[in-house]
Amino acid sequence: DLTWVLDDWRLTKSAAISADFGNGHDMSHNGRVGNTVTINGHAPDTFAVQQGERIRLRLINAANARIFGLDFQGHKPMVVALDGQPVAPHAPYGGLIVLGPAMRADIVLDMASEPGSRASVLDRFYQGLEYRLVDLAYGAAPLRDRAPDWPLALPANSLPEPDLRNARRHEVVFNGGMMGGMVMSEMGGSMGDGSSGGMLGGRGMTGGMGSMMGMMHSGKIWFVNGVAAEGHIMDPMLTLERGRSYVLAMTNATAWHHPIHLHGHSFRVLSRNGQATTHREWQDTVLMAPRERVEIAFVADNPGDWMFHCHILEHQAAGMMGVIRVA
Length: 327
Prior knowledge:
Blueprint: E1 2-9, H1 24-28, E2 36-39, E3 46-49, E4 54-61, E5 68-72, E6 78-82, E7 85-90, E8 97-99, E9 104-110, E10 118-123, E11 131-138, E12 168-176, H2 180-186, H3 208-217, E13 222-224, E14 238-240, E15 245-253, E16 258-262, E17 267-272, E18 275-276, E19 282-283, E20 285-288, E21 293-299, E22 304-310, H4 313-317, E23 321-326
Parallel strand pairs: 1-4, 3-11, 12-15, 14-23
Antiparallel strand pairs: 1-2, 4-9, 5-8, 5-10, 6-7, 6-9, 10-11, 12-13, 15-21, 16-20, 16-22, 17-18, 17-19, 17-21, 22-23
């Protein structure tokens, strides 16, 4: 049972941390992606394993902005939990363990290669920026001749099941960023009424796209329902009744990925682009691809004011954050 805390760093040629924090390019694109990846604060060359060994590997993405797409070459990871919540054991879609900032995954990894061999763990999320994290280095002596056949499923945690038939719905639109106007136009969006409006409904923004461009020039680059977060104390974008079930229909009307994180609650991921999810997984952070629509459901059972934001920290700092109040 092992934990890997994954992080990345933008280093200069002298191995100092680059001082270009908060620059406009990072803010308006995919955030501050570094050039050096660490595991538990180190950059190891190898990770010792044995043939026949089974590892439960707990992965945590602690990076500012980097989205990891981990390829355990020659191995078949099985996902058994996401964001601390058990899920039906399954192979990852496309063979990659994809984790946006703040996301976690527990995987079971059986060591099935030959003694003395090596297999690389690669990050292949960004085309052209592939990165080797570490090599799985097999010792000379096997632990056993084959992986154990122990069951993979974990007992479920006790979470209140949302009542979908009686759930209240809210539309949430994330927009802005570089090429944001183009994406909004492609998706046929307007900024209408967030409680019941069309696909790209929002809380309204006087002046439409022109005002949005003006806000971007003032440092407000990203928006939730047409509003860019500012200040340390914010009025709630939604007020939810404690104990009631809710569905949030979220649209990523941008050209970039966003790991959307809700504090204080876990939610079921119900659908992506209108297609029901296979595992209805419980998460607290869901990665949304550009132009993607995701529906999540939860019971608002934890009173208070809760941050609701993109966990790419440059996106959050430049406006992609709101507050959901449970009262």
